[in-house]
Amino acid sequence: xxxxxxxxxxxxxxxxxxxxxxxxxxxxxxxxxxxxxxxxxxxxxxxxxxxxxxxxxxxxxxxxxxxxxxxxxxxxxxxxxxxxxxxxxxxxxxxxxxxxxxxxxxxxxxxxxxxxxxxxxxxxxxxxxxxxxxxxxxxxxxxxxxxxxxxxxxxxxxxxxxxxxxxxxxxxxxxxxxxxxxxxxxxxxxxxxxxxxxxxxxxxxxxxxxxxxxxxxxxxxxxxxxxxxxxxxxxxxxxxxxxxxxxxxxxxxxxxxxxxxxxxxxxxxxxxxxxxxxxxxxxxxxxxxxxxxxxxxxxxxxxxxxxxxxxxxxxxxxxxxxxxxxxxxxxxxxxxxxxxxxxxxxxxxxxxxxxxxxxxxxxxxxxxxxxxxxxxxxxxxxxxxxxxxxxxxxxxxxxxxxxxxxxxxxxxxxxxxxxxxxxxxxxxxxxxxxxxxxxxxxxxxxxxxxxxxxxxxxxxxxxxxxxxxxxxxxxxxxxxxxxxxxxxxxxxxxxxxxxxxxxxxxxxxxxxxxxxxxxxxxxxxxxxxxxxxxxxxxxxxxxxxxxxxxxxxxxxxxxxxxxxxxxxxxxxxxxxxxxxxxxxxxxxxxxxxxxxxxxxxxxxxxxxxxxxxxxxxxxxxxxxxxxxxxxxxxxxxx
Length: 638
Hints:
By secondary structure, the protein is α/β, with parallel strands linked by helices. 45% of the residues lie in helices and 22% in strands. Residues 344-394 form the PAC domain. It comes from Streptomyces violaceusniger.
């Protein structure tokens, strides 16, 4: 960059404009083109890399926005000045660019000499703007200046256009009446209200817009400094009337004029009617109460609930209906609060005309009106609700008792079953096994006396048969009363069951014990018997190679998951066949214990059986212990 020349970066996404600007800068002896950019991101980077005095930048480019780019350039290259160049000249865009620090704003189409002059002026920290943009942006300033003139200067021989525009946006009807009592101006609200055009209203008198009975009152509105609103009727062009509110004032100027404000009350009356209909159609009693606690209005449901005529209620204190209660309807706190008041509800006691009382739910809501803040009380008789609540509470108590009874029944049932199994196992051990053991010993004595080899072979086979019987009886004893289960080890009892299945069928297994809680004896027995039933189904029907058993703690209970890789089945089809009770027994056991069961299977995809039972302490019942049956010491092992 030359020592005396002004470095310039050109940023524009249009190739033709970019090249034309570059050639224009190269043609000026005091300017030097140091960089080009095609988007906002490149414009900031070129300013940082080349440190120019001026960046002339298109406002609407991709990859960013102009205000952000100006901020980034001013922050990172404080000595650089930005001149905006755009095909658009919206006032808001121009003001936004100037607000972030742009040193000029030119519209595309500005003569080349003005563009070069703007670049030079920006380098001297001087401002430049297209003339048409300057006029448009200065208009708000001129309006602000006009608004600061004295009010008398706004009204002369004719109303200024800006003042007419202000009246045109007024939220109500506005009429300006001249010294002769003729209408000089009417805004759109008045024209719509009365059905006249501007030309038809001009030179009419105010009395022409009201019925004859209100003409004297309408004339009194004109010529005064201020009048309080008067409720009258307006008369439309077609002769129909509508409720309206008129107020007037005096405009002091070179020529005194009057102004009349007109509000159509038809919608207000309609809103009041809808409000009354809403109150009357409410299924609850509704009262409107003033700040002193006096009833101002009541619906027919209030009459039915309390037994009073509404005429008898109007003006009475609300404490007559809700006596001796902490009901605060004083609105002083709401009046003093700067925040919008918020309603609330409470349960109180209502009193009918016959002095009978009833529980009531009372909603208290504030209602702002022109007369002040009122209170809307919505009252509902909750006798039936409380009765239903009482019945529900009693039902819940009954369910809790029933649940405890069910748990007790389950405990006794499981205990009885296990006790019976223990008794049978003890009988087998003490009687059948002892007899067979004695017979085996006798047989061995007899065999030693025999000399004939054929007779000895018959005796050997008979001895093997007796040993097999003993083995099966010992397994039956284990099935009836697993020793691990008696000692409180659920996982050990299941492992013994799985080992037996592996020895008999070759099905391999994996047992995963992640149960940290210790189940009560009855619950442990129920879990074991339910899992045993599921494993029996695996052994008999699944034709599986492996089975995975999990014991998991879940939601204060035990979740047992048994997954096999067998051939699977259709649960709906199999469970509907007669004689297939195993799966039903699994589900029933879990449900009796207050749990649930889920069985998932399909042909060729194996079977998953999941059941969950709670581990809560059951009601007091005899525990199943090794001493609960008359078993001898040293139970035989399978």
